[in-house]
Design goal:
With 189 residues, the chain is of the alpha/beta class. The chain has helices at residues 14-24, 70-93, 99-112, 137-146; strands at residues 2-8, 36-44, 47-56, 59-67, 133-135, 151-156, 161-167, 173-180. It is built from four helices and eight strands; from the N terminus they run βαβββααβαβββ. It starts with a strand and ends in a 9-residue tail after the last strand.
């Protein structure tokens, strides 16, 4: 890692340069040997600003800190940059396979195995026959009120659609409509 230290409006002492290089060693593990780290130091009255810019694997990471002391600003900037680099490193190393990759990896195993399928058990527990009548919604509502059934299937006379009227446990009615039925020649419902 190459560390380039630039100062604006302030001189860089040997001690400060050593301190920065010592603190930057914390994040060296994220860098390649040729990756540059730019450290820009600024001083304006009583404010000390530190900006660090890292170019790693086609990505740019930037951290800024401002305090009353230069060393504290360096510490904050290094901490911020380290957090960004860790987050990026974790995101890149986390391995999640998409469903397509999972299928691609599983294909050799599936091709070599013999697949036998057992018949699936039926989920239908009770079968009921319902008469299908042509009526209006209002007639269906009155018919379901008269009966103890929770479902009423009918053909809506105005729109020629199959509808299901469902009475919920709280007593409210729900109407389920289907798309319009195709007209058949010579067939009467």
């Amino acid at each position: 890692m190459k560390t380039v230290i630039t100062a604006r409006h302030t001189p860089v002492s040997v001690e400060l340069r050593r301190y920065i290089e010592e603190r930057v060693k914390k994040i060296e593990k994220f860098f390649t040997p040729t990756a540059p780290l730019l450290v820009i130091l600024k001083t304006e009255k009583y404010r000390h600003d530190v900006e660090m810019i890292a170019h790693i694997r086609d990505a740019v990471f930037q951290a800024e800190a401002e305090t009353k002391e230069m060393q504290a600003a360096v510490d904050q900037a290094v901490s911020k940059l380290e957090a960004q680099l860790k987050r990026s490193h974790d995101k890149n190393t986390r391995s999640k396979r998409t469903s397509e990759e999972t299928i691609r990896h599983a294909l050799p195993v599936i091709k070599s195995a013999k697949v036998t399928r057992a018949p699936l058990p039926s989920k239908i527990r009770h079968k009921m026959a319902r008469p299908l009548r042509t009526m209006t919604r209002e007639e269906a509502e009155s018919a379901i009120e008269d009966k103890a059934d929770a479902l009423w299937v009918f053909i809506e006379s105005r729109q020629n659609r199959v509808c299901v009227l469902h009475r919920k446990k709280d007593g409210t009615l729900t109407l389920i409509e289907t798309e319009e039925m195709p007209k058949r020649r010579g067939a009467a419902l």
